[in-house]
Each structure stands twice: as C-alpha cells, then as structure tokens.
Amino acid sequence: NNPRLRLQLDNVNTEIVKTKNALIDIIQDFQRKGVKPSVSHVKLLLSERMGRRIVVPKVEFLLDFAREYVTNNVDLQEQTKRQHLSAINVIEKYSYKINKKLRFDDITVDFRNEFMGYLKTTKHDKGDYYKPNTIARIFKNIKTWMGAAYDKGLTNNHDFQKKSFGVPKEDTDKVYLKTGEIEQMYAVDLSGSPRLEKVRDVFVIMCYMGIRYSDYLLLKKENISPLGLIRITTKKTKTPVEIPIHD
Known about the structure:
two-stranded antiparallel ribbon
C-alpha cells in the first residue's frame, strides 16, 4: 500500500527485464557468429547496450600488450618467455617493413596471409628462411596475446579464433636411443675426464627416467621413496609423476 515503493519496485523490474533481453540478444549474436565470448567482453557490450559508460584501459597496440603480457605473467617459464620475445622481435621487424604499428583490429585473416608471405620469403638473423614450425610457433603466440586481450575486453576482434587464421605445423622426426645404445654409452670409460663422465651419467639418468634437464635439476633425495619410485612434479607442465627406479 506504499505507492512510492511500488513505483520504485516497478522500475527495478523494468530494468531487470531490459537487461535480460539485452543479454539474450548479445549471446544470440555471438552464437550466430560461432564465437565463444569472454565474460569481460559480454559485460562491455551489455554496458554499452544499456547506455552505461565503461572505461577500458587504453592499450590498443599488439606489441605493447604482448610485452606487458610477458613481463607480468609470472607463470611463464623462461624458455616460453624467450619464445614470446623472439616472436615480438620478428613482428617488430615486419611492422618496420610495412611502416605500421599493428593494432588489435589489424590482426585479421588478411594480416595472417600477408605476414605468412613475409615469413616465407624473408631470411632471419641466422641467414635462413623461417621454417614451418617456427612460423606456427609465432602465430601461436599471436593467438595467445589476442586471446588475453579479448578476455580483458580490450578488443572485439575475434579473427584469431577463425579456422582460416590457423597455421599448419610440419611433422618432425622423433630421434631416440635404443636400450643397447644407452648401455654402450654408459660403458665408455671417461674416467680421464670427470666433467664428461658426469655429463654422460646425467644424460643416461635422463634417458632412463624420460625427463627434461629442467626436471633433473629439481631432483633431491626427498624425491626418492622407499618403494623404489622417484616422485617429481614436472617443471614445464606442473604434472606430478612417479618413475620406477632403474636397476
């Protein structure tokens, strides 16, 4: 029986209905385009649709964001950081060649095709052309940066998600040592060179354990269990593994 309160509640209900309808329209639009939106992107579009002004950080250049991403991402391993920085260096040279500082909106399928042509016809610092797997790694980094920027609501450009933006990798030969070859290496007398003997022993241990050198460096006595197992958490994938101790 309070007319003023009733009016306020009616206004709230009207706002809820408008918000719900706007949200449905936005989601259906993404579904028609076959795009999976981020939460921040939906919030941004919803705010615009409802007439609210939202402040977005003024980061619009790809490489500026990429450098921030590498600097601020504490989960990146050193090797992964080097790959990101290498990709940034290559794109920087391409930007200099075309005399254009690339924005998020520039990273389209057309960019993909033009940049691919550049990489296939340009020699890198070591004097050779970029190999297919190197090119694929550079584009993987670009997609990572664009995905992070998209999630932050810094861009609406989703060309990087399209199938036509992808870059095929080339199958590589898997090189491995057979048991007899490892045993032959272990039997070599290197007592005259303690350094080489230690390097050889470490390599043999890594072969039998199937681990990376970065994981070998983490091994301690505490990792060896009385049950004859070595328990470690791999540095690159953060995966806990149990490895039987070789006789």
